[in-house]
Design goal:
It contains nine helices and seven strands. The protein has about 280 residues and is of the alpha/beta class. It folds into two domains: about 1-205, Peptidoglycan recognition protein-like (Lysozyme-like), CATH 3.40.80.10; about 210-275, no CATH class. It has a seven-stranded mixed β-sheet with strand order 1-2-5-4-6-3-7, sandwiched between helices. The termini are far apart. The structure holds zinc ion. Zinc ion binds near residues 189 and 191. Zinc ion binds next to loops.
Amino acid sequence: MKCNLLLVLGIGILGIGCSKKVYTSENTVYKDKAAALADTIKNPPTIRTKYADSLVMTDHWLGTSNFNLRKPNLVIIHHTAQNSCEQTFNTFRSESTQVSAHYVICRDGIIQHMLNDYLRAWHAGIGTWDNITDVNSASIGIELDNNGNEPFSDKQINSLIQLLGYLKKTYNIPNANFIGHADVAPGRKVDPSAYFPWQKLAYEGFGYWYSDTTGVNVPESFNALEALRIVGYDVKDSAKAISAFKLHFEHKGIPETFLTPADRKIIFTLYRKYL
Ligand SMILES: [Zn+2]
């Protein structure tokens, strides 16, 4: 059974689609894992438990009185590469797939919350952004229902912008930290696709966009690859970093691994926004 709720969030009204199956008794795996993690937090971190693997450091435990939950500081946007939200819900609720995300936004604009923002979803895999090497631990993952070869619907993008506004405000996430899966995993991932409207998002305050390059003179000594590293890209493999940059900022769906003078102008106006 599905329901649509309206949550008043201070910044406006956000439509949230919810499927009771996601969190309730039908999802026994979720309940069991959440209970085990709650036990892990309640108990002294001197015992290795089933779902936590790095808490056993010392036998000397006291426990402070002052703490809360860690907050995400990065948002990674994906497309599902599937044909329907139902298909994605099934994928994210099957243990064998080992993939998930915090939110799925369907073509009709319904936002499906899949996992508490404080928990670590498995959406980014191996990847790097700036100095962050465990992207899943730092981020919120948002999947857009899209097969990768089609435009994103206006309703879907409008819902995404509302959700990003809520996340940005709630967790104080900086502009530069709204990026795509392909940005953190160059050469391995190509989502969201070249149809994704990054410029529109940047205009709304989610990610940066380059400035008008008319009349820009790029010094010959300008190191474009170093500039991409400052933006956040892992540039160990320069060809992959360049193709990820071109997907995001030039909508090049077919990988291009070289830089033209026009590309260098774009990078020259872009990277200074990250300094
Ligand atoms: Zn992805």
